[in-house]
Recover the amino acids of this structure.
């Protein structure tokens, strides 16, 4: 039976993706920090897909040694995956001058290096097994600089660059790499993000609506199966992807207008 590995698989987009793949008949390896939530996710998945195997690993993807050990164990139990999705992430908005170096480093360690480790460890065995599909999760914050996202956005810009290169480099190994740019999505991460989001940032990012994790998961899986390099759910993300560089000067002016009205807070 085919296998799928999903980091951040206990909630949000990661859980929705894992659940959808389970229903399609994939065995699963789920990686997340919270052991209790992992077990809840496992039970929910098995309730709808009782014939599959689900392995869970309580691990911080920012701890490379622990994450590598978990990935290696999962491959020993399930074989190299046909599909791998790096969905573990974090977002703590705030003003640069008020945030610590450690917080910036943590964003890079989780959002970028966690995805890098997953791809690094799995791509070789996937290639040896005949190929596969890798899904990475970006953000609208990877299109242009947004006030209040100095810790978060650089990690997504980095992931965008990595994905664009890997899509080219891994293609000869029969591995497709797909990057999705979800809008605000109704997940625990978004709820946590709203706790520290400056008022001006709230105004700047308002109006894009709120997607459901199942919708994003469905579009990601479709994009991976089709071998698309990029998936842009919704009109707003599509326009930003296609015209972001042209719109950037106008978006900067718009942000400065919002900041002037709502203050640097």
């Amino acid at each position: 039976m085919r296998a799928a590995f999903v980091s951040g698989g206990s909630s949000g987009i990661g859980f929705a993706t894992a659940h959808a793949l389970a229903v399609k008949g994939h065995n699963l390896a789920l990686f997340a920090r919270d052991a209790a939530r992992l077990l809840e996710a496992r039970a929910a998945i098995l309730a709808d897909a009782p014939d599959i195997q689900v392995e869970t690993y309580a691990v911080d993807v920012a701890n490379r040694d622990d994450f590598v050990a978990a990935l290696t164990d999962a491959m020993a139990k399930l074989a190299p995956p046909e599909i791998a999705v790096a969905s573990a992430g974090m977002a703590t908005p705030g003003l640069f001058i008020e945030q610590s170096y450690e917080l910036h480093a943590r964003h890079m360690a989780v959002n970028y290096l966690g995805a890098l480790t997953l791809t690094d460890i799995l791509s070789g065995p996937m290639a040896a097994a005949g190929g596969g599909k890798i899904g990475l999760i970006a953000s609208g914050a990877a299109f242009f600089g947004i006030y209040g996202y100095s810790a978060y956005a650089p990690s997504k810009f980095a992931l965008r660059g990595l994905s664009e290169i890997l899509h080219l480099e891994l293609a000869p190994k029969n591995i497709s790499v797909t990057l999705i740019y979800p809008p605000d999505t109704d997940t625990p991460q978004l709820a946590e993000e709203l706790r520290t989001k400056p008022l001006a940032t709230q105004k700047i990012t308002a109006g894009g609506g709120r997607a459901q994790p199942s919708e994003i998961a469905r579009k990601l899986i479709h994009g991976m199966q089709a071998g698309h390099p990029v998936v842009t759910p919704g009109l707003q993300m599509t326009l930003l992807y296609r015209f972001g560089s042209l719109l950037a000067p106008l978006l900067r002016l718009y942000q400065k207008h919002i900041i002037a009205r709502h203050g640097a807070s």
In short: The chain has one domain: 3-262. Residues 180 and 231 are 5 Å apart (CA to CA).
